[in-house]
Write a structure and sequence with these properties.
By secondary structure, the chain is an all-alpha fold. The protein has one domain. About 75% of the residues lie in helices and about 0% in strands. Helix 1 runs antiparallel to helix 2, helix 2 packs parallel to helix 4 and helix 3 packs antiparallel against helix 4. The longest helix is centred in the C-terminal third of the chain and has 14 residues. It is globular and about 30 Å long. It starts with a helix and ends with a helix. The model has no long low-confidence stretch (mean pLDDT about 95).
Length: about 60
């Protein structure tokens, strides 16, 4: 995970940062989904872990 993404997660997710980082690290294992997509789902989630899961799910579906 690139530092700017990790920093944004720490800023936006507070106490849920570790969980959000785990979600994005798993998400980034898909070679079709690069850092630009990771940044997008983090921003779309607006610090909400459920929104992050939804955004990740949507991005994964779109990449198939």
């Amino acid at each position: 995970m690139l530092p700017d993404i990790k920093n944004r997660i720490s800023k936006d997710f507070g106490a849920s940062s570790r969980e959000a980082i785990n979600i994005i690290e798993k998400f980034e294992k898909n070679p079709k989904l690069g850092p630009r997509v990771s940044r997008s789902v983090v921003v779309l989630a607006q610090g909400n872990i459920e929104k992050l899961r939804e955004a990740v799910s949507g991005a994964e579906s779109d990449s198939k």
